[in-house]
Amino acid sequence: MCNGTYVTYGTVVAIDYKSGWWYKSCKHCFHALKESENSIHCVTCDTFPNSHVPRFSINLRVADELDTASFILYDKEASKYLGVSASNMSLFHVNKNEYPQELNTSVDKNFIFKISVKMEDINAFQPCIIVVLKLCADNSIISKFLDKHKIYNKNLVHENSELITILSDSTETPKITNS
């Protein structure tokens, strides 16, 4: 797999809470703020804001029948799927290490993901960063996607799910690969 934008189908099997579920972002550019003892700094804007905006950063484990991968679900798509902003959710979960049960609604669910893949050495287990650009849980759309690409999936259950990948910005006929 190369750097690029792909469309893939898979099942969320877990949420990795080790890195938390939200981050402090700049109000202007939405990038993460760097914290020091008595200030916060936006490296992108080169400002020292007095406040921040909580934004989602949820690490999903997505599986097919052969393997799993870590996908990062950021604020825009997470808010759309959950129906609540990270700001509103964090009001009830002040401690960043408290994990709202609402986040578990995606576990054991099948999705079509539009993802961005960047090949960077994160660690030996996952040599790339995979960011979710779009998320689709509509079963009728998923069924059409699976039919179009001749993917067998009995009742969209986890045991028969396949993680298929299609380069989405290609002008050629899409190629299906099992990843």
TrEMBL record:
Family per similarity comment: Belongs to the replication factor A protein 1 family.
Record-linked PANTHER family: OS03G0429900 PROTEIN
InterPro entries listed in its UniProt record: Euk_RPA1_DBD_C, NA-bd_OB-fold, Rep_factor-A_C
Domain of life: Eukaryota
Pfam families cross-referenced by the UniProt entry: Rep_fac-A_C (PF08646)
Lineage: Eukaryota, Viridiplantae, Streptophyta, Embryophyta, Tracheophyta
Keyword Acetylation: no
Limits of the Replication factor A C-terminal domain: 9-123
Organism annotation: Arachis hypogaea
GO molecular function, one term: zinc ion binding
Assigned keywords, A-Z: DNA-binding, Metal-binding, Zinc, Zinc-finger
Listed name of the protein: Replication factor A C-terminal domain-containing protein
